[in-house]
Structure formats: structure tokens, C-alpha cells
Amino acid sequence: MRFSEILNLVRINLIQNKFKVLLTSIGIIVGAATIVCVIAIGKGGQADVADQFRNLNAGALDISYEQSEGSSGFSFGGSLPSFSGGSMPSFDGGSVPSFGGSGSSFSATASKESGSSDGSSRRSSRSGGSGMPSFDGGFDLGSMFGGSGEVKNREKITLSTEDMEDITASVPGLSEATITYTTKQNIYGGNIEETESYTIAGTLSDYAGLSNLSLLFGDYLSDTDNENKTKVCVLGYSAAKNIFGSAEEAYDSIVYIDDRPYTVGGVLAEQGSVEAGISADEAIFIPYATGIKYLTGSDISPTITVIAEDVDNIGAVAENVRSVLAASYPNAEFTISDAGSKMEAANKSNRTLTLMLIAMASIVFIIGGIGIMNVLFVSVKERTQEIGILKAIGGSRRDILLEFILEACSISLIGGIIGVAMSFGVSPLITSFSIRMEMSVTGALLALGFSLVTGTVFGFYPAWKASRLVPVEALASE
Amino acid sequence: MTDQIISMHNVCKSYKMGTEKLNVLKGIDFSVDRGEFTAILGPSGSGKSTLMNIIGCMDTLDSGSYSLNGIQIDETKERDLVKIRNHEIGFIFQNYHLIPTYNVMQNIIMPLLMRGEDRKTAERDCREVVDMLGLSDRLKHKPSELSGGQRQRVAIARALCSKPSLLLADEPTGALDQQSGTEVLRLFTKLHEMGNTIVMITHDMNVAKWAERTVNIVDGQMYQ
Question: Which superfamily does B4-223 belong to?
């Protein structure tokens, strides 16, 4: 029998049993819709991660220091943002174990020397080591946890541009380096009637390039601005809108930070929410030195960001940074976080979630497939006499097998098409719950492919049973 | 040499009923000449349906030999029996055995589709038979929309359109009222006069009388 004629018989049978086809394909409809939605949510998650990390460079290492309150010889993690999943790599340097959940951390141990020209307590002289105070009751937790008994991070250390220059001079394989800090300050100006608290970021001129920031109006801060400690600022998009009503209005206006007037030299384009680093939309950027002079004095906790030339070499760069800092601060422990690992971890957790959802969708498909198989078995039973007639008048096993398999495939394909259409229908509902979805043709094709495979696999056995029926017995069936 | 369509010698067939062996056909010798209209007459349980299944190549024989239009059926594999059923035999069943989801034309052309013809050619090839049986205005109807007599005419059309060597009818009037039954038997006579070979199985003496020749089957044995 010609394939086209078998298809025509399948078409006739499906049209004659529309309601049954619809009921049979419900499992496939749900499965296909789930697959499309799952892939869309997965892609949406990846896009979210990409957006949230777009101000980070994959080769970036953030170096920061946090003064310890309790002094126990070990740290409970740094101050970096935390990511779900907790699977980030941890590089422990020195003898002090690093506990804690957030970010990749590299620890450096150093003693301190005091005194710094820019207000930071650089290379202070006090050292840790023996004789460090232990806990009441005679416990020395530092020793207990494998440390040397030294008390870390009790001293105030402020990372400085000199530290940054030390690192760039001594660590090979670095392409760029910058230093930033943030502080909260009251500001007014523009449409603001009462002062409001904003995040002020002190940055160098290269920060915009390093963080992939683009400008809507004006220019970013320059080296001259920093050298002259000019009172100039760049506003984040949301900050500009909040203060002045629009980015255009904000440009070249005056905003008062801690009662001092700053000229708005530029307004950033909208960056969206970020998972790590400074949230650029809400922040006000000023020259690094200007901030120290007029706003913070030495009371800052800067972060040095270095960019490794080769992302694959980031572990070695981190080791070298640790060594350079250990030479300057032998009794201090720095948190060094690796942006690439953060991105990878976030992507990994996203992929895990996607795989889990795909596994769920597969289960739905299997259930749908079993449904098809059951209905086909009933169908073969119901149509035993018809199969007998076809065999009596010359229908071969191949014809019968093909007819039933194609019927199963068609049912599942119809289910797949309805499911895909349904997924596009429900996507606005899902996105209304703040779940980002990136609908894709790949997802739709994959769902249809899954549907077809399910129909073929689960339809085969009933079809095979039908094809093996003995004509005389099939004809005699009631 | 006689031109025999069916030639059976010492055909035996038995079935297992639990632990017991039931001998249904006990050494049947039976032949049908080309163009002959033969009735096989027998009561219920005599083995006539089993004989029909063997003649129709839908069941195998245990022993003996069977040749249909020169083809040695007892030595033929199932795959080839499918082709023989399609090309050599036109089945007419008591309960019509039409496919309920297909319309009249789709039912009629089915054997031609089975042998690989396309639909348009098959419909053209069947047009003459359809006209002869007066089904032209019923082609789009489903079997459920037809009377018993009309359904049996559709079954006869399906059997005829493949131009088989043998028309094999199993109780063709069994499900019909007397008038419809008579119409069908008149049609058989006409087909016989047109040169078709017909083997009709029946338990009804009055039906058997319409045939050119009647053979009796009783308890698995044939009496000419």
C-alpha cells in the first residue's frame, strides 16, 4: 500500500475520532507545553544572569579587606554578594582556613605596618602570631581550626592606589586594574525637596570601561578630575530620573552631595539590575580622590579590581595577588573574589534548575506516552475486526504496523502542536509572576520532536500487536 | 486437462480444545472448475467455515494439498498469502465486514489500494462495478447509512473490483431479509453468467439451490 494512502487512512480515522484524539493527546499537550516553557524559563534565566553580570568582566578579581570584629583566626566569608547554589570555588591561601558561603575567596595572611599618605593605614607595624589573645576559657580557636594562633584582620587596613600599583607592577598577566569604594551620602538638587540618601561610588577614570558602562549623555570621569579632585559626578540612569526627572535634564545640572555642589558631567544609560558590584542605575559616581577629600576621609573600604589577561589563568593571578599582598600585610586576610566563577556558578545553578525542569517535563511525556499506548491498545482491541478485514483483503503486516504507528505519531504531533501553541499562550501569564521567559523556535522544535518520539516509541508495541493478528481470529472477534 | 481454480486433496485440519484435539476437516477432496458456481452446504459445526478459511488462505491446513489457480497454497508463506488473498480472492462475508469509518467508495477501492494503486486510478477501475451494482449515488455514504442489502452489494463490489479468480462468499444472505437475500443471489447468478467463479458457503438448502453445483459437508467430510 502506498504511504500516501496509509496517511489518508490515518487522516480519516483521526477525523472520525476527534474527541478521542484530543483526550489521548492531553498528556502530550501538557508535556510539550512544559518543555517549551521550561526551555524558555531556562533561557530567560541565562539572559538574567548575563544581564546581572554584564558589569562584570569574566577575568576580573575583586580584592577587598574586612576588619574582623571578633578576632578568632578564621573568617566567615567576605563581604561579597552571595549566590544561590553555594557551589563557588574556594581558593584558600595561607594557613588560615576560610569558612563561609559567598563567593570564591582567596585568603592572604600578613602582618601590618601603620601609616599612609592617603589616609589608609598602609603597611602598619603591628604583627600577629604568638601571644595573640585567645578566647575566654583558654580556648585558642585559631589553633583549633588549623590556624597558627594568629589573630587576623583585627587592624584597620585600607587598600589604596599604592596597593593597586604594587599589584599591577608585581603580578604578571594583568591587563587592567582599578580601585573603587562606595559610601552613602545625603544629596539634594533637581526635583528633590528633602535630602535623600544615595550610594556614592568613588572611582577612577577606567571604571566605566572595566564595568561595561555606557553613557547616555556627557563623558565619564577623567584622570584630570581625579588629580584635581574636581567636584564632578556621573549619575546612574535611575538616579538621574529620580533627581531631575529625566537623564537629559540631569546632564550639566548641579547636584549637592553632602551640601557641596557637583556638576553632572554625564548620565549613564540604563544598566538594569546587577547581581554583583555597584548597582550603576542607582549610584552617583565621583572621582576617587574627590570623594576621599570631601566625603569620606580615610574611612573607606575600597575594592581593588584587577583583570587577568587570560581568564583560564585566573587562579595563578589570584595566587600572585595574594603573595604581593602578603608581603605588605603579613597578618591580614583579604577576600579575593573571582567574577568569572560567580558567573559560572550562577549559570551552573541555572542549568541545574533547567535540567531539573526538563526531567519533570520528560516524566510528563512518559506519562503522556503511556496514555497513548493504553488508548492504542484499546483502539487495537476495538478495531480487531477492522484489522481482520484489512488482512483478509490483502493488507500486509507492514501496512497495519505503519497505519497504527502513524496514528500514534499523528496523535502525539497534534498534541505537540497544541502544547506548543498553549505554551505561547500561557507565557504572558508566567511572566506576570516576574519569571523571565525567552520563547524560542528551538524550544518549540524540541517539544515537537519529543512529542513525535513519544508517539513512535509508545505507539510501536500496540501497532506491532495489531500487525501480528491472525486474520481469521481477528475477523471472528466481536 | 481441466481448468481447475480449486484443487484440494485429503485436506485435514484440527484444533486443540484444551487437552483434546478436535478434528474439524477429515480428508477433504474438493475441486472447483473455472467459471463454476458451487455451493458448500452443511449444518452448523460441520467444518464449512474452517474449509472456507482454508480456501480463502486465511488459515493453514495440517495435511493434504491445496492449489488455488495453480498456486500451491500449502507451500506458500504468510507474506505471499497476503498477495494471493488480494489478487486471487474476493471475499463476501455474512456480516459484510465493511470498515465503518470509511465511506462506500473508500471501502470498495480498499483491495486496490492494498496492492499499491493510487486512489484516483482505483476509483476509475471500480466505476464499472459500482454502476453495475447500482451504488453510484451511495458512494459518499457510510455503511451505517445503508440497508443490509446495500451493504452486501458494497461488499460484493469490493470483492469484484480487484478482479479476483474466485469469489468466496460465506453465508452471503445470512444477515438479510428474504427480498434482499434473493436480490443478492440473483446478482450472484448474473456474476456467474459473466464468467466469475463463485464458491458459496451456506447452511440453507434454498440458498444452495441457486448454485450450479452443491456439495455437502457433514462432520468434516465432504459428500459430492
Answer: P-loop containing nucleotide triphosphate hydrolases (3.40.50.300)
